[in-house]
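Lecture 7 notes: from sequence to structure.

We start with a single chain of 215 residues. Read the sequence below before looking at the structure.
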Amino acid sequence: MLSFAILVLGLWASGLGVVAAPSANYFWSSWSDGKPKLTTKNGADGKFSVKWSGDKGNFVIGKGWSTGGAREVTYSGTFEPVGNGYLSIYGWTTNPLVEYYIIEAYGTHKPSNTSEAKMKGNFTSDGGSYEIMTKQRVNKPSIQGTATFAQYWSIRSENKIGGTVSTGNHFKAWEAAGLKMGKQNYMIVAIEGQDSSGTADITVGVPPTPAATGA
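Now the structure, written as tokens:
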């Protein structure tokens, strides 16, 4: 789950390896361990899509900002995993090196359902309730190469696809729980698949269209 600055020409990208590049006003990032069968599209503005299959391997793709931070992230779209997958606000900090997730929706596996997870509390934001979780990653890929680092997670109690995510609320809640943040690196609205299949079509910067109501 890492990204390096490699400029990619064209809108379509292979799932093999890592790519990262600006896309209009958004930062585009794509990482894969080379095992999933991926079809990804880096569309105009905040649009991107991915179809994955093969039920093996791991990937993370998405659009956002080359420097993360507290902001009101709006997005809309679809997310249909068959198996384990995450729709999240995803990013990294340095000093300390931290990989973080704000999970808005997930497939068959809830991230906190693991013996490695350390629960750090609960809080509410943007109309939803979240669990705070952390775990340690040892000698794993990172934006600084193979390293040992912490993961921080906010996990929404009920899946929500589209809307607004106030990232600053999560950063404050993590700090209050003793999970120290560092200097922000990139932050994206991300789709991740692990040993699964599925499709997703996301537009960053455009909130969902309100449902029509009767007169």
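The longest helix spans residues 167-176. Keep this in mind for problem set 3.
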